[in-house]
Structures are given as structure tokens and as C-alpha cells.
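Support request from a user on the community tier.

User writes: "When I paste my C-alpha cells into the form, the page sometimes reloads and wipes my input. The last time it worked, I copied everything first. Here is what I submitted, just in case something in the input itself triggers the reload:"
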């Protein structure tokens, strides 16, 4: 069933339609939210509510509602790019009578009344693909948001999971005529602070005894450079593509816990993320640790995955 068959029916049955992303919103989360927002508005004349955490660099997409301000008792909720109910930007969405999940992560929690779960390169690719196959009107504004999610989640169409269908959908989006170069400029622009943060990451980079590159970004660093969680993730690029070190990990203080982001070139590491209560994709996944004392445990698990590969 096409996601928009469900959407077309449910938006008419409920007092409101709410689109929600995941915590620590990224380009795919925000692109999916606003892509869907415009698709629903342009095709059915209904204006959905978008609920997400605040993130300054996506303000150009439009305005949205912050978590904790929405009554879900008669809402149709579309949850995008979010694998588990706990990772939702507003977990109380589970009170809604009607929930559609659209996601591209490894499936561990099919929390929707309907679950469109496809292992494609981005959630935006799923949404755009379904919109085109249903023959919907796709405006330049909708296309711009969806293209943004595709570009950011695939490392500009370079990561595992990109295939011919990805580029076919991207091509259809480009044909709507939005200003692609200015979009890329907008999402790639960096502050001087983030450049200085990267310099510190190159300094802080360590390689474990078993050959796993790792960086730990402490709270004092986050405060010094005024880093949002997605800015912290830029430290991953410091460890990408180091010859002979295909598995690497970023640790960062976050809300009294330690956020773990695992990355790998062709060696599946999601089992390690799951061992620590997390999840995600085969080669890109994450978890949360109770404290920094568990960092060596994660590194040890990665070393053993690396050894067996
Ligand atoms: Mn995504």
C-alpha cells in the first residue's frame, strides 16, 4: 500500500494531522517533515502541524511547534525518520488514535497502526518515491525539503544504500526547478566556531590498541564552541576513510549521558549499538551510555567485531 493512500484517508478522519521527527533532528528528519507538510497541503488543502525540537540551521524551511505543546487525542500522527517510539521528538504522540510510521532504519519497533518501513538511503527517498508513484503534485518547495534530506543522509549520494532508484527520485525532484546550488550552500555553511571545533577534534583523535579511531567530545568542549548535537556529529568526518581503520566511534556528553555514534566502512556494527541499547543502520548507528566509564567497553566490542571481520 502506498503511504499516501493511508494519508489521504486519515487526514480527513481526524481533527488534525501532526508530523513528528526524531530527537536531535538532522537533515533527513527535517526534510521529511517539511516535504510531507507541503505535499499534504498542496494536494489536499489541509495544513498539518509539524512538531520537532528547535534547530536553527533549518529555520529556512518554515516554522514548527516545539515538543510538549500538542494534544494528540484526536490527531492523525505521521512519525518520520524515527525507528523507535522513545526516540520521537514528542513521545506522547503514542496517545494518538491513528499513527503512521514512515522510516528507513533497521526495524525494531513497529509502533504505528501502519508502518511503511523500507531500507532505502533516506526517509526522504521513501516519501518522494511514494509521492511520485501516486502521481501527486510535488511543488518546488516540497522537492527542496526532500532533496535536502536525501543529500544529507547519503553524504551527497556516496554512502552505502544509494542505488539507481535513489538517483531516479533525486532526478524527479530536481525537475521541479528549485534552486539546488543555494540549498547546498545553505546546508553546508559552517561557523568559524565549528571550524575551530574540528581543529580540536583532529588533536583529540585517538586510535585504540585494537585499531579503532575514537574521539570523546566532553561537555566543556560543547560549551566552549556552543555546539548543538548535530554539530558535534561533524567530528565523525575527522575519522572517515582513514586507511586501515574502517570502524570508528564518536562519544559525546549529552544530557548527563554519553552519546555513542558508530560508523563503519563495510563491516556491520549495528550489533554493537544494540548491545548497548541502541540501533540504527548496519554501518551507521548509535546508542547512549550511562557514563564515560563505559567507553572502553564499547571500544572493546568494536575491536572484536573488527578482529572477526
Ligand atoms: Mn534518516
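"...and here is what came back when it finally went through:"
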Amino acid at each position: 500500500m502506498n503511504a499516501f493512500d493511508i494519508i489521504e484517508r486519515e487526514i480527513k478522519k481526524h481533527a488534525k494531522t501532526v508530523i513528528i521527527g526524531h530527537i536531535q533532528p538532522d537533515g533527513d528528519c527535517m526534510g521529511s517533515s517539511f516535504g510531507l507538510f507541503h505535499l499534504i497541503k498542496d494536494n489536499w488543502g489541509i495544513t498539518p502541524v509539524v512538531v520537532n525540537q528547535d534547530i536553527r540551521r533549518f529555520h529556512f524551511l518554515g516554522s514548527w511547534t516545539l515538543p510538549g505543546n500538542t494534544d494528540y487525542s484526536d490527531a492523525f500522527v505521521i512519525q518520520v525518520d524515527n525507528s523507535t517510539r522513545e526516540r520521537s521528538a514528542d513521545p506522547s504522540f503514542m496517545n494518538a488514535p491513528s499513527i503512521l510510521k514512515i522510516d528507513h532504519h533497521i526495524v525494531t519497533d513497529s509502533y504505528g497502526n501502519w508502518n511503511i518501513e523500507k531500507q532505502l538511503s533516506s526517509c526522504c527517498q521513501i516519501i518522494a518515491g511514494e509521492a511520485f508513484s501516486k502521481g501527486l503534485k510535488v511543488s518546488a518547495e516540497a522537492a527542496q525539503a526532500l532533496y535536502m534530506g536525501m543529500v544529507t543522509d547519503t553524504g551527497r549520494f556516496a554512502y552505502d544504500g544509494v542505488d539507481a532508484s535513489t538517483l531516479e527520485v533525486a532526478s524527479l525532484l530536481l525537475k521541479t526547478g528549485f534552486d539546488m546550488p543555494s540549498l547546498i550552500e545553505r546546508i553546508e555553511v559552517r561557523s568559524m566556531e565549528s571550524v575551530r571545533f574540528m581543529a580540536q577534534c583532529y588533536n583529540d583523535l585517538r586510535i585504540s590498541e585494537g585499531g579503532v579511531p575514537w574521539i570523546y567530545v566532553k561537555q566543556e568542549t560543547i560549551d566552549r564552541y556552543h555546539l548543538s548535537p548535530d554539530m558535534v556529529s561533524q567530528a565523525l568526518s575527522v575519522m572517515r576513510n582513514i586507511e586501515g581503520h574502517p570502524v570508528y566511534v564518536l562519544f559525546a556528553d549529552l544530557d548527563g549521558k554519553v552519546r555513542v555514534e558508530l560508523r563503519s566502512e563495510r563491516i556491520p556494527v549495528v550489533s554493537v549499538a544494540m548491545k548497548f541499547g541502541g540501533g540504527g543502520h548496519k554501518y551507521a548507528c548509535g546508542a547512549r551510555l550511562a557514563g564515560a566509564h563505559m567507553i572502553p567497553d564499547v571500544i572493546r566490542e568494536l575491536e572484536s567485531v573488527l578482529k572477526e571481520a
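Agent notes: The reload is a front-end session timeout and is unrelated to the input. The mean pLDDT is 96. Residues 28, 81, 104, 122-123, 153 surround manganese (II) ion (CB under 6 Å). Escalated to web team.
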